[in-house]
Amino acid sequence: MTGISSISDAERLARLRLLRSENVGPVTWRQLMEAYGTATAALEAIPELARRGGRKKPYKICSKSVAEDEWAATQAVGAHLISIGEPDYPVALAATSDAPPLVTVLGHPHLLNGRCVGMVGARNASASGIRFARQIASELGAKDLTVASGLARGIDAAAHEGSLKTGTIAVVAGGIDIVYPAEHQQLYEQIIEAGAIIAEQPVGTKPQGRHFPRRNRVISGLSLGVLVIEAAKKSGSLITARMANEQGREVMAVPGSPLDPRCRGSNDLIRQGARLVETVDDIIDALGGMIMPSVQEPEPDLFDVAKPAPPSDQELENARNLIEEKLGPTPTPIDELIRQCHLTAAMVFTILLELELAGRLERHPGNLVSVL
């Protein structure tokens, strides 16, 4: 690893336990860390938070032995376990609202904090699309930009191949030790040697359909902008473009023939305002000043800040009743809850945290929540 860790092994293990505990996702994990400062303190607090949220049965905290086994398995494959807030954690990704609290990395972690461009597209890409992807990736590398993609067939593979010599990042949907598709074993090994592979799922996890949208938001989160080359109407690449837009990244697309169904989604992106790209200079122009400043490392005490006095039990009870009245099975924006309930954001976040830990709340993209 390139950076000096700002947390102890004990705290990293506690962060892993917290993440693997029941009903704790990336947003909940971060809110718990912001509320309690350390994972050790958060682990002590969550059973009571879940009880206050209405949970009847005992809360399941990930055991120390289970977390130790995962950490050992991660080390056994030669990967690093990196927590948000550590120097090697990608700063651009950390700035997104649902950044993975911990990631596993193989290869060269320093690439994660370079200036990246995401490249995605059709798995069944045309020969010209693959050739163009390789060329653009190579030219981006020549301009000191790292290419991030998803190790899929077609455009993804071409993007990695074109940027191997200058730096490429593969974001995988399953565990970092699972090569998918299996035909990319050689490319996977080449990326470990010259680039970096990053995964959110535990070692040994076989990729499932639900993992791919999560992988896509990591590709866009790492990047200043995302380039789409050949994408059908219902392509997963369009999910990456949508997430890039939500994260405030530049969305770019290569125009294609209206007669080719592989280009209808990417042409639609241009119609909706994505930057049209024909040359690498179009990408440089689209990114503008974003490629100039170097990325700054986060403060080592990301969660160790002064906490306001907690609300009283009576204040929480009154707020809880009010919020539960407003919630229903239809997803509701959290900002709208804050406005309608006339409560502080901290109070609303606390109540939603309790409900989620109790298994009564579901989070949706776009900062929406609903009750189960």
Number of folding domains? 3
Helical fraction equals 40-55%
Low-confidence stretches: 292-300
The largest pleated sheet is described as:
9 strands, mixed
| Strand portion | 5-15%
Q: What is the terminal-to-terminal distance?
A: 42 Å
Q: Tell me the CATH architecture of the largest domain.
A: 3-Layer(aba) Sandwich
What's the gyration radius in Å? Answer: 21 Å
Number of strands: 12
Per DSSP, the total helix count is 15
Strand order across the largest sheet? 1-2-6-5-4-3-7-8-9
Mean pLDDT: 91
- Secondary-structure-based class equals alpha/beta
Coarse shape? globular
CATH topology of the largest domain: Rossmann fold
- The CATH class assignment of the largest domain is Alpha Beta
Order of helices and strands: HHHHEHEEHEHEHEHEHEHEHHEHHEE
Strand and helix layout:
Layout: H1 9-19, H2 26-36, H3 39-52, H4 64-76, E1 80-83, H5 91-94, E2 102-107, E3 116-121, H6 127-142, E4 146-149, H7 155-162, E5 168-172, H8 185-194, E6 196-199, H9 211-222, E7 225-229, H10 236-246, E8 250-254, H11 264-271, E9 275-276, H12 280-287, H13 313-326, E10 332-333, H14 334-341, H15 345-357, E11 361-364, E12 368-371
Write a concise synopsis of the structure shown.
The protein has 372 residues and is of the alpha/beta class. It is built from 15 helices and 12 strands. The longest helix is centred in the middle third of the chain and has 16 residues, at 127-142.
